[in-house]
Design a protein that fits this description.
alpha/beta, Rossmann fold, Alpha-Beta Plaits, 2 domains, 6-stranded mixed sheet, 23% strand, elongated, binds adenosine-5'-triphosphate, P-loop_NTPase, ATP-binding, ABC transporter, ATP-binding protein, ABC_transporter_ATP-binding
Length: 294
């Protein structure tokens, strides 16, 4: 799917399959295209090009949408209704809703059942919004930055509730800017930036990239770069301004191997790659690939 807004390409030819039972973390910086992707899956917007299918059908078809639960970044709740009334009201739209008491327990809302939603704190409101996303026992749950603004305890309650619901077999997608959140929740991680999927893998594989280190050096013989490609645990290999950078999950092994192979180099530098750098490495590789194919 591709989605443009005038001159902005929010999603650029993305192909993605959300499988039954997966707990998916969608990681990307501001403006990456995460919310746009969720809005296409939930049928709130149409793609400019391409096709989106929800349970094999049209995301705008009520028969498919009844199996979907979502929490957008901002949720409007009727401020004079009580928490319990809102849960009952939303649950009443579904054929087999969760029991109100059970749901409120799951999200730590039991003590707030009689509170008007207008009197809830931001964090409590957020938990209620996520609870409402699952009250109808959806098979697919889309949560857009569900823990933004939550303190540590509220975040933990929400994560536990999401994990608990996922254990019942639903597919859950959570977007976030934070690796910590994705690490705590997701089994599969989709990294998205500039409207493109940069990586889509299980959590350990993504962490291996993020936990990677840069080994930077200047090669005496630039052609030697070909001898670096099969170094141990190499995630990425790039060259800039005469410097060669190897992104690797095992920098010690890379350095040992460089010496063993008698590669002539100078200015050796080893340092950790942050999540941001890992993003960057993925983005750079992406644009380098595009450049090569243009
Ligand atoms: N309705 C719209 N009109 C114009 N541009 C839009 C619209 N919606 C999104 N965009 C643009 O599309 C790009 C992707 O936005 P999107 O909201 O999907 O990103 P995001 O990854 O969800 O970001 P954030 O983490 O900040 O929520 C951005 O450049 C954004 O400005």
């Amino acid at each position: 799917m591709t989605r443009t807004f005038d001159a902005v390409t929010a999603l650029d030819d993305v192909t993605l399959t959300l499988e039954e039972g997966q707990l998916i973390g969608m990681l990307g910086p501001n403006g990456a295209g995460k919310s746009t992707l969720l809005s296409l899956v939930s049928g709130l917007r149409r793609p400019s090009r391409g096709t989106v299918r929800l349970f094999g059908g049209d995301p705008r078809d009520a028969a498919n949408r009844i199996l979907l639960g979502t929490t957008p970044q901002e949720t409007g709740l009727p401020s004079t209704l009580k928490v319990r009334e809102v849960v009952d009201f939303v649950g009443g739209h579904y054929p087999a809703p969760m029991a109100t008491g059970e749901l409120m327990e799951m999200f730590g809302l039991t003590d707030l059942a009689s509170r008007q939603t207008g009197g809830l704190s931001g964090g409590q409101r957020r938990r209620l919004a996520v609870a409402l996303a699952i009250v109808g026992r959806p098979r697919l749950v889309l949560l857009d930055e569900p823990t933004t603004g939550l303190d540590v305890d509220a975040r933990r309650i929400l994560w536990d509730a999401v994990r608990g619901y996922h254990a019942s077999g639903a597919c859950v997608v959570v977007t976030s800017h934070y690796l910590e959140e994705i690490e705590a929740l997701a089994e599969r991680v989709v990294v998205i930036d500039g409207g493109r999927v940069l990586a889509d893998d299980d959590l350990p594989a993504i962490l291996a990239r993020v936990g990677a280190r840069h080994v930077r050096l200047t090669l005496e013989h630039p052609a030697d770069v070909d001898r670096l490609r099969d170094l141990p645990s190499v995630v990425d290999l790039s060259q800039q301004d005469g410097r060669t950078s190897v992104l690797t999950a095992d920098s010690d092994a890379v350095v040992r191997e460089l010496v063993r192979r008698d590669v002539a180099f100078s200015g050796l530098e080893v340092r950790g790659a942050s999540l941001e750098e890992a993003f960057l490495a993925m983005t750079e590789r992406e644009s380098a690939t595009q450049g090569a194919t243009r």
